[in-house]
Each structure stands twice: as structure tokens, then as C-alpha cells.
Amino acid sequence: MTTLKKALIAALKSILRGRSFLQALFAFWISPAAVREHHVNGKAALPRMTVTEFLHDAEQGFLAPLEGEQLRRFSKKLKLQFRERLQSHAESMLPSFNHLLPSGQEKGHYLALDVGGSTLRVALVTLRGREATDRESEIVRMDTFKITPEVKKLEGMSFFDWMAVRISQVIKDDVSHCTPTAPIPMGLAWSFPVEQTSLGGGLLLGMGKGFLATSGLHGQDLGGILKFACSKQGLHVELSAIVNDGSATLLSQAYVHGQTRFGLILGTGANIAVHLPVAAFNRSKFGSRPESWFESASHVIVNTELGMFGHDILPLTRWDELLNAAHPRPDFQPMEHLLSGYYLGEIVRLALIEGIENTEIFGGVVPPSLQAPYSLDTETLSRIEADTTPDFEVALPYFAVTHPSSTKPTAADLGAIRSLATYVSQRSASLLAASIFSLWELRHETEAEYIQSEISSPTPSSARKMSFVHEAKVEHTLPRTKVAFNGSVIERYPGYRESCQGYINALVRGSEHVGQVELVPALESSILGAAVALACVGEQKEDVSAP
Ligand SMILES: *[C@@H]1O[C@H](CO)[C@@H](O)[C@H](O)[C@H]1NC(C)=O
Ligand SMILES: *[C@@H]1O[C@H](CO)[C@@H](O)[C@H](O)[C@H]1NC(C)=O
């Protein structure tokens, strides 16, 4: 068949897909030289659409539904979902036991641990107070221990014994003068599920990620386990604060910036911790905790589990549907799929494969290394977006090595991937901005509702209630809310942070509430957050014992 004849047939076919015959024919006449030999399933074929058309279609799918006021409308729907789950939901909008934000006056030396999927970190942290500008908090000593596959396989107590030896190694010299009657308080950043029973108490739940530490210890108190393991090393410790990564990020920055009310994680996973009034929740959400907790808590740090939101309100493309359908837990974390670094590459891969099969991208040949699910990682997208040279001088060789193929990738091919990466990362940044904005409005609304309900309450206010209302008024008029962030995507993905801040600013400008919302980096957020949480406990204890 002559190429022209093929073009005519393709043009006729395209009519069936709603594209005009002339448009299709023009596409051929305008760039006949651009028609590279195209393969589908190994057979030569003519691309069904131009790259430009394909990318335009993708852009429409990813970004058009969130343009202009639509993003605000989305944030309103999301706010309703947040509100519903303040009333009841077992797995999201979870109030922690942290009800105190640091005053910035906490001072002292603290032992902090950070247990993540691949490292254990043990640190001694000195807090000097907010007025010690740029030296507010300092990690005086920190040792990092790799959690190797062998360590992960340590069953039950053996894992905690391993931890205790490491802790002892780091602090032995400092504590040799301590008497056994005064336990050393510890703060712990724990990146695994835990059922907290108090600020320093938590029942061990399955850790996942290949760990066997919970075997035989499931449901037991983490503090008790650590205490026992450390006692075998001659260390007398007490676990006084457990924080998750979001709370840790919030607390670590709140110590430095008094107006920090959000902790944001956006790396492989996505999550937000936010500070909300206790009155916004259905009491049942707090589980069983002592009345004394409620007597001292006007506000609480909440683990939103943001990833679990967004069902039925997210604008999904066919590629999102494909990802979800192939997922081991479809619909479990709808928002996570559109936000987090774990999925950005996969969405681009799914769109790219459709592009390759229908246009001249990669000459119609899917590189074998891109056929497997999750084979295009966010790091690669980040490198392609970062390369602003016209010929992708840096990204092209990198891509050619990481994804070898019989067809050599061209700058135009990388340009197409970059376009897809931009749509997907911009969509993530705008949805993240909408999530933050929505929670910021929720803070305003729930503070106002609480103040109103107290004012109109017929029972006279106690001194405690009056101080709670005062606190709510301070929160309601906070001029410059800070969102402390941590995570590879928001820290390093080219343009992501700036773009997200831009979307936030536009949403805040159009809000009926007044204020500013600013993203700020949280340095060493886990370790410092654990130390700050511990310092806040010290304050609480002093409060209690004060006459
Ligand atoms: C508060 O929680 C209880 C227990 O889950 C539930 O029965 C009740 O409907 C909730 N209240 C509201 C207003 O949703
Ligand atoms: C984010 O948190 C991790 C773990 O605490 C830390 O290693 C990293 O430095 C943090 N990012 C920033 C910008 O501090």
C-alpha cells in the first residue's frame, strides 16, 4: 500500500472517531516527513493520530477538570468528606493524643528515635528555645543504623533487642551517671501502624514492609516492649511520646514557627496532619481516653490519612481507571493515586503506552522495560522535567540507559514524556493545594462554630471553657498559617512546590476567610518532631504538678 493510501484509510477511520477527514488528511500533508516507520505489535502501521493531538487529549483529561473555579468546587466537595469523617470513620481523620503545640520555650536535651522502613536513627537533641534564632533545635548526636533484610527478619522481641543494643551504643556514656530510679524519657517517630492508647502508649499492629517484629507481640504495648528490651542492656528508659511522620513534621516546625498548623508529607506516600478544635469531632472518634485528656485539650493534632479521601469526586482519566483496576486494593486510597510519588510514574507510563501505540512516539514501539507495571519511576520523570535544554542533553542519555529499546528515543519522544509528566505533576500539585486549602477553611469554620456554640450556650462558662474559647479565637484569626512539609516530591520535583504554593495562593485569595497559607520546609522532621513531642510532655507534667 502506498503511504498516501494508508493515510486516506487512517483518515477515514478517524472520522469514525469523530475527527474530521480534512483534519486527518492535513495532518498527513503538513508533516509527511515526520511520519516515521510506525509499529504496532511488531507490524508496520500508520500512526492513528499526531503526537500533538494525543497530548492535547491527555492535557484535557488531566488538567481541564481542575481549571479555574473547578478547583475551588473540588475543594468544597472534599471539605464535605473531611466533615463527614470527623463524625465517623475508623481509618481517617484520626485525632492523636497530642493536644499541645510547643510554646517555643521548651528547653533541654532529649532522646529521640526514628524507626522507618529502612533505617533506625537514634539521636540526642538539644532544644534551646525559639529566641535562639537558627539554633532553636539541634541534633547533637545522631547515629543511623540500616535495617537490613536480616534485621527485618528478626522475629518479635529479637528485633527490639537489636534496637536496644543500638540505643545503648549511642547513649551509654551520657547516661552512666543516671540512677535507675529516674528513667530516661524517649520520643519515638514510628512510621508503622500503631493503636495509640496515650501519648506514649501504643499497641503494636502489623508493620508490613517485610518486618517480622510483631510476630508474637501483636497488640502489646510498644513502650513496655522497648522498656524491657532496654533494661536487658542496663538502660532504664520510658517511652513518653509516639508520633507519626505527619505530626512529627508539624511539631518540628511549630517549635520554630509559632503559626505552623499543618504537617505535610509528599514523597512516596502522601499525608497531612492538621491542628483542629476538639469540639469539631464526634466524641466516639476519640475512643476511650481519660476525662482528664478532654479537660486539658481544646485542640488536637489530627492524622487525616488524606490518601483515603476523594472517592466519587476526583476527575479520573481512563489511565487512572486502569491503574485502579490493576491495584491490589482498588478504591482504598483514591487521592493517594493522584498525589503521591509512588503513582505519578505509573500514570504517565499508562498514558505513554497508549501514546506509543497510537502515535509516532518511539516509532510505535513500547520499550520492553516499560511494559511492566510501575517500571517508570517518579525519579525519571523528575529528571526529564528538570532538563530544560532543547535536546534533552542530560535526560536523553539517562532515559536511553534506563529504558533501552530497539528504537532510539529522540528529543521529541522525551518532549512527549515531559508533557505527560507535567500534566500529571501539575494535577498532583493542584489537588494537594485544594486539600490544604480545604482543611484551612475547615479550621476556620470549625473554630467559628465552636466559638458560636459556646457564646449561645445557656450554661455559664467555666474558666476552662473561657480559655478554650480564647484559644479558638486565636486560631480563627491566625494571619499566616504555615504548612511544614517533608518528602522527596515536594522537596525535589522540579517546580512542584512553587506550583502548589501558586494554586494555594489563588484559592486563598478567593476565599471568604482572611489569611495566608505558606509552605515551609521541615528539616529532619522525624527526629526533631519526636524530640519536640517529648518536650511538650515534660511541660504537661509540670502543669499537672504545679500548685
Ligand atoms: C457519632 O458517633 C456515633 C458512634 O459512631 C454515631 O452513632 C453517631 O451517629 C455519630 N454522630 C453523628 C452526628 O454523626
Ligand atoms: C524529611 O524527613 C527526613 C526524615 O526525617 C529527613 O531525612 C529529611 O532531611 C527531611 N527533609 C528535609 C528537607 O529536611
- The number of distinct helices, counting runs of at least 4 residues, comes to 19
Q: Ligands in the structure?
A: 2-acetamido-2-deoxy-beta-D-glucopyranose
Strand order of the largest sheet: 3-13-12-11-14-15
Sheet-strand content, in percent, reads 15-25%
Number of strands: 15
What's the CATH architecture name of the domain at 100-243? 2-Layer Sandwich
Q: Write down the overall mean pLDDT.
A: 89
CATH topology of the domain at 100-243: Nucleotidyltransferase, domain 5
General shape = globular
Top-tier CATH class of the domain at 100-243: Alpha Beta
Task: Describe the sheet with the most strands.
Answer: 6 strands, mixed
Radius of gyration: 27 Å
Secondary structure category: alpha/beta
Q: What is the helical fraction, as a range of percent?
A: 40-55%
> CATH superfamily assignment of the domain at 100-243?
ATPase, nucleotide binding domain
Instruction: Give unreliable regions as ranges.
Output: 14-35, 542-547
User: Which oligomeric state applies?
Assistant: single chain
End-to-end distance: 96 Å
How is the topology of this model organized?
Elements: H1 3-16, H2 21-30, E1 39-40, E2 43-44, H3 51-62, H4 69-87, E3 94-95, E4 108-115, E5 119-127, E6 137-146, H5 149-152, H6 157-175, E7 184-190, E8 194-196, E9 202-204, H7 222-231, E10 237-243, H8 245-254, E11 260-266, E12 270-277, H9 291-296, E13 299-303, H10 318-326, H11 334-339, H12 341-358, H13 378-386, H14 395-402, H15 411-455, H16 463-476, E14 480-486, H17 488-492, H18 496-509, E15 516-521, H19 525-545
Parallel strand pairs: 4-7, 7-10, 11-14, 14-15
Antiparallel strand pairs: 1-2, 3-13, 4-5, 5-6, 8-9, 11-12, 12-13
Helix pairs in contact: 1-2, 3-15, 4-15, 6-7, 8-19, 10-12, 12-13, 12-15, 13-14, 13-15, 15-16, 15-18
The protein binds 2-acetamido-2-deoxy-beta-D-glucopyranose (2 copies).
